[in-house]
User: What shape does this take?
Amino acid sequence: MKVAYVMLVLVVILGLLGRAAAFADPRRDAILADLLAQAQQAEPGFAGFSAERGAALYQAAHTGGKQGTGSCTACHGTSPQDTGQTRAGKAIEPMAVSKNPARYTDKANVEKWFTRNCQDVLGRACSAREKGDFLTYMLGQ
Assistant: This one.
């Protein structure tokens, strides 16, 4: 089992490096590897993160969160490559790694924003799979 875990982590890391070598960052890779381990523990047989599921999560309208924040796009805009805006009118830097290479490199900051935004948008905590899917989507943007 340990060998399978190491192999899967390597596959994820190599896949990310192959798709976005210019944006590779070992801190981001470590965050994804940790989320992968959590997702595998929660879902035995978990096959890996999906940019398609991440895009669907980003674009979908949700009903469980705060009024006015029913989707990620409510504040971040329909394209992760664009600048968003908070409900108070403050600019939000693009979510896409291609436009904001420093995104998703600080584990504590990533967790802080997932905690806050998942609660606001979904009305609950995001699962490790949802977080990994979201990050995988953003790495390709």
About this structure: The first helix runs from residue 2 to 19. Confidence is low (pLDDT under 50) at residues 16-20. The chain has one domain: 2-139.
